[in-house]
Design a protein that fits this description.
single chain, mainly beta, SH3 type barrels, five-stranded antiparallel β-sheet, 1 helix, about 45% strand, signal, Cell_Wall_Dynamics_Protein, SH3-like_bac-type, SH3 domain protein
Length: about 160
């Protein structure tokens, strides 16, 4: 009888244990901060402003929004496009557009050709590296525009 109770108690403890969280870094943003919100969208109130390099634990997600926990235990929602597995502070230009067949490279709103075009990048244009997803890099331009470009057409800028 005691063994059955012990097993039931162990099962209840395992089911009640929180799932392992992913550790993410807040990436650098053009305005210097990322809003942590009360819900998954810009219509929810701002709880706090997060800064580049800050570490958070991802608890779950809803669309393009991740529910995260701060080191002090507070939770909120942040846009997943501004968080990554690795933190690389913005510095001198990281990348440069290389020659393409049609003379320009499309900067897109997401990591794939199925996303809309934000603008066209010219050969030799220099960019800041923000994040990598497969064969796509999220980059930003000096004036602040950011988007996704195929890594195939980018090279390190020395």
């Amino acid at each position: 009888m005691h063994r059955r109770h012990a097993l039931a108690l162990l099962a209840a403890m395992l089911l009640a244990a929180p799932a392992a969280a992913d550790t993410l870094y807040v990436l650098d943003t053009n305005d210097g901060f990322l809003n942590l919100r009360a819900g998954p969208g810009t219509t929810y109130g701002i709880i706090e402003r997060l800064t580049g390099g800050q570490i958070v634990d991802r608890l779950g997600s809803s669309g393009e929004w991740d529910q995260v926990r701060l080191s002090d235990g507070r939770t909120g929602w942040a846009h997943s496009g501004y968080m990554g597995w690795e933190y690389r502070p913005q510095r001198a230009y990281d990348l440069m557009v290389v020659r393409t067949n049609d003379g320009y490279l499309n900067l897109r709103s997401g990591p794939g050709t199925n996303y809309g075009i934000v603008r066209r990048l010219n050969w030799g244009q220099r960019l800041f590296f923000l994040e990598e997803r497969g064969s796509w890099f999220r980059v930003s331009l000096p004036e602040g525009t950011s988007g996704w470009a195929s890594a195939r057409y980018l090279t390190p800028a020395w």
